[in-house]
Each structure stands twice: as C-alpha cells, then as structure tokens.
Design a protein that fits this description.
The protein is mostly helical and 330 residues long. The protein has one domain (8-26, 36-328). It has helices at 8-34, 37-72, 78-98, 108-131, 134-141, 144-155, 162-181, 193-216, 222-243, 250-273, 279-286, 288-301, 307-328. Helix 1 runs antiparallel to helix 11 (279-286), helix 2 runs parallel beside helix 11 (279-286) and helix 3 packs across helix 4. The longest helix has 36 residues, at 37-72. It is globular and about 50 Å long.
Length: 330
C-alpha cells in the first residue's frame, strides 16, 4: 500500500534527494541569464507550496490504503491481498501503455532485482498488516530509509556518519518501545515476534529495493521501475497465494480494489510532488503516513495503543527524521 506500497515513494524521494542540489543550481543559473531571478523564485515558491500540500494528501492516502488493506485481510490471507493489489498496478500500467505510454527498459537484471526485493517487501508488509495492529505494521515498514543508508554504505560505498548510526540506534529503541507497549491494543494478547520480524523484514527489503533504484536511476524511468515492481512482485506473491488461496467475496473485492486504487493515486501524487518539493521536506512530510495510520487504526479499527506505545512511535519517527536530516547535510 507505502508502497506503493508502500515504498515506491521512497525510491522517488531518494532520487529527488540526489538530484535536488544539481537541479536548483541549474535553475538559478538560467534565472541569472534571463535577468529574472525574483520572478523565478516566486514561481518556484508557489509550486513548492502547492506540491507540498499534494504530498500531504498522498501521505494521508497511503495511511487510508493501509487501513483498507487491513479490512481486506480480515478474511483473505495477507499474501493474497498483496498479490491482487500488485496485479492491479501491473494492469494499470498495461492499460496506460496501450493508450500510448512509452516504456523503454534498459537494465533488465536491475529491474528484476528491484522487482524481487520490492515484491518481497510488499509480501512481508501485507502479512504483517494481517496479524499486527495496522499502525505498528506501517510504522515498522516506514523505518526503511535508515536501511537505505546502511545498504548505500555497504554496496554503493557512500559514507555513514556516527550520527546516522545513532539515528539507527534511536529508531531501534523506538521500535522496541512500540512492540513492548502494543500488547494492550484493544485488550489483545502481546504481539507475536514473527509478525514483528515480518514487518521489519519489509523495511529491510524496501531499503534494498530503493538502493537498487538509486544504482540504476540514471537509465530507468519511473514507469519502467513501477511496472517491474508490480509485475515481478505479483509473481513473488503468487506462490504463497496459490498455497493458501481463499475465494474473495464482493466485500473482499471492494477493499482490495480500493487498496489498489489508493496505492496508485498516492503514488502518482508523490511522483508529481517530488519534482518541486525539496527532498528533506518531502521525507518529513511522508512521516505523516505512520502517524495517520496510528490515528486511523485507533478510530476506525479500535486499535488503541498504550501511552508507552505512543511514545515509542514518536521515538521511532524522530529517529527516522534525524537520519534523513543527517543524510541531507552531507
């Protein structure tokens, strides 16, 4: 659902962070040549303000999408919901391609790896949604930016500062607080660690998927990457779906289709907004998703966390934001 589910917006965000400084310098140079720096600045300010609010809307749609996925998973297995959601995305791109959208893939091996990692991330995320409070699952999934920093350090040889490591430690403490303080959700039994690990696994795989996108970002377009994510992800999730398939009712289909449409809509808004919103601001705005999901889970599903759980959520989000701010200052 971040992710695109769920994390498609993270790929776009990371691409924006890498190209933001270069793009701003280019625009400034052109403005000086035209002798109209003030007018360009005012126009950029309006576009940034408008796109920032669109990104707020996208963050809220991602949160609603997660709750809809939870509703769909009330009877259907989480893997099946993920498979149907990804299949809807692939069909959408196919329809757009039939209508004239040009797809020009270059690095098929990288697209395959991105699809495998992304499909695995969505699979684990939806399985976690089916068995955890939706706010907890989304919060754990949204810790993926810090894993991007780790993978970028390991595979792309990008530097990692002590502050980034401290942000990762702070986030880990927050996650532990959320898990330990969430046993009182709706008076339910304590959370099972296997589903907590599934949610964290979705964040790890999402971080790997984003790192793969960063490595091929200069050659592949957004639609090619999104299609690979949906198409290969559908195949990845089809295996557990076939093993534990449940015939969906009309109610199930309503929630699945709504999940897919919200995912596509939020992804389109995110992609459009990141053209004008500074990457750091965009990353902070996108943290509205786990906050909103916690709130919706309480109001819509009756999943009320304890005070300790709320504090843990705040610590986790703070750690992620600190890590993003640290990366942007390099």
């Amino acid at each position: 659902m971040r992710f695109v589910c769920e994390f498609g917006h993270l790929a776009q965000l990371d691409r924006a962070l890498a190209s933001e400084a270069k793009g701003r310098r280019f625009e400034s140079c052109n403005a000086h040549r035209a002798g109209d720096v003030k007018a360009v600045g005012q126009t950029d300010g309006r576009r940034t303000w408008h796109s920032s609010w669109l990104l707020v809307l996208a963050s809220l749609l991602f949160a609603v999408m997660a709750v809809c996925a939870k509703e769909a998973a009330a009877r259907l297995p989480g893997a099946q919901v993920a498979c149907m959601r990804l299949s809807l995305g692939a069909v959408t791109v196919a329809v757009l391609a039939a209508g004239g959208l040009k797809l020009r893939p270059h690095n098929l091996a990288a697209l395959l790896l991105r699809g495998l990692l992304g499909g695995g991330a969505v699979l684990f995320y939806f399985v976690a949604i089916a068995h955890l409070p939706v706010g907890v699952a989304t919060l754990l999934n949204n810790s993926s930016p810090l894993f991007v920093a780790v993978f970028s350090w390991v595979f792309l040889r990008e530097p990692m500062s002590v502050r980034t490591l401290l942000a990762l430690l702070l986030t880990s403490v927050g996650v532990a607080m959320v898990v330990l303080g969430s046993g009182s959700f709706g008076g339910n039994r304590p959370l099972e660690w296997r589903w907590v690990l599934a949610a964290l696994g979705s964040a790890v795989l999402a971080g790997g998927a984003v790192t793969t996108v960063r490595a091929m970002r200069k050659r592949e377009g957004s639609w090619e990457i999104f299609l690979a994510f949906c198409l290969i992800g559908s195949l990845v999730t089809a295996v557990p779906t076939a093993i534990d398939f449940v015939w969906p009712t009309s109610r199930d289909m309503f929630w699945v289709v709504l999940t897919g449409l919200l995912s596509i809509g939020s992804q389109v808004l995110t992609t459009y907004s990141l053209k004008d919103v500074p990457a750091v601001r965009a990353g902070l705005i996108l943290q509205l998703t786990p906050i909103s999901t916690f709130a919706l889970g309480a109001v819509w599903l009756g999943e009320f966390p304890s005070l300790f759980g709320w504090l843990g959520a705040g610590v986790t989000i703070g750690g992620v934001c600190w890590g993003m701010l640290q990366r942007s200052s390099k």
